[in-house]
Design a protein that fits this description.
The longest helix is centred in the N-terminal third of the chain and has 7 residues. It is built from 2 helices and 20 strands. It has one domain. The strands form 2 sheets. It has an 18-stranded antiparallel β-sheet that branches. It has a two-stranded antiparallel sheet with strand order 14-15. It is globular.
């Protein structure tokens, strides 16, 4: 009897907003609800098939990828930003994209895909700076003849070379998270598929860690009760292009340092939340600048 030919992910591809990118993982969380009444009595311990009705399609998935400039250029317009000359500024834009996931023998497609949450991570390890895209789609598609257009290949970003400044002072950091949670509002009305998408209250934050030393401890003491916001800049480089994540009016969610071990430095955890300020000029909560070195 011949052995079964297994499908492995070595040939897997993912297309985001019309371009194919290298990816690390796809976590599919899509489910279809079943409507039934578990309180009903039918004189039997097993439910009857006639007691089921179709519910909502919840098309959700997470994609993990390494950061490159072409990838950022593809996804940043879909996290609620407006682009101008390499600067992506937080705005009220609301847009969707198409996502295709090639499993080798078949392709899963997602029509009208919305990024609900984006999380970038970097740290002092052998892993590159990565991004998690948490997505919700209006419809799941079985695509018979997909088109995959390879994106421009560029260098990934390691953590070495990353710099962080707060209120004009630089600090040593060993990790960071930049997250944008859009809290989008979805509605189904009388349909099994999403019928409407609206903006929710967005939350953006930068979290990092710095040595708690006398020369730099003022970042905690000066900001734990500070209300008007501080200017932050987190810069990454791949030796060719820089990516700078900036917040002009960031508010520190203060947490005092802990002592966790005898053999590592005492570090101060810092979580900054983006704010905006009305006025002239109007200051938005965050912006991402891509520049050539």
């Amino acid at each position: 009897m011949p052995a079964t030919v297994l499908e492995t992910a070595v040939d897997a591809r993912v297309s985001i907003a019309g371009s194919q990118f290298c990816f690390a993982k796809v976590i599919n969380q899509s489910t279809t609800e079943t409507i039934r009444n578990d309180e009903i009595n039918c004189a039997h311990v097993d439910p009857e098939v006639e007691g089921d009705a179709s519910g909502r399609e919840l098309n959700r998935f997470v994609i993990l990828l390494d950061i490159t400039v072409p990838l950022l250029e593809a996804i940043l317009p879909h996290i609620g930003t407006t682009a101008a000359t390499g600067v992506y500024t937080s705005s009220l834009t609301l847009s969707s994209m198409e996502v295709l996931i090639d499993y080798g023998a078949t392709t899963h497609g997602y029509a009208e895909t919305w990024i609900t949450r984006m999380v970038m991570r970097g740290g002092t390890s052998t892993m590159p700076v990565s991004v998690e895209l948490h997505c919700v789609a209006t419809e799941e598609l079985d695509v018979s003849s997909p088109t995959f257009t390879l994106a421009t290949m560029e260098y990934i970003y390691g953590f070495p070379g990353t710099t962080f400044t707060a209120a004009g002072t630089s600090y040593d950091v060993d990790r960071f998270v930049f997250a944008v949670d859009r809290n989008l509002v979805f509605e189904w009305n009388g349909s099994t598929k999403i019928t409407g998408v609206g903006r929710g209250k967005r939350q953006s934050l930068i979290a990092t860690s710095t040595p708690y030393i006398a020369a730099k401890k003022s970042i905690y003491w000066s900001n734990k009760t500070h209300l008007t916001g501080r200017s932050l800049a987190l810069l990454m480089t791949n030796g060719t292009k820089t990516v700078t994540i900036a917040m002009e009016k960031a508010k520190l969610n203060a947490r005092a340092p802990s002592i966790e071990t005898q053999t590592e430095s005492i570090r101060l955890p810092l979580t900054w939340e983006g704010r905006r300020q009305e006025g002239s000029p109007d200051t938005e909560s965050f912006k991402i600048t891509i520049a050539t070195i």
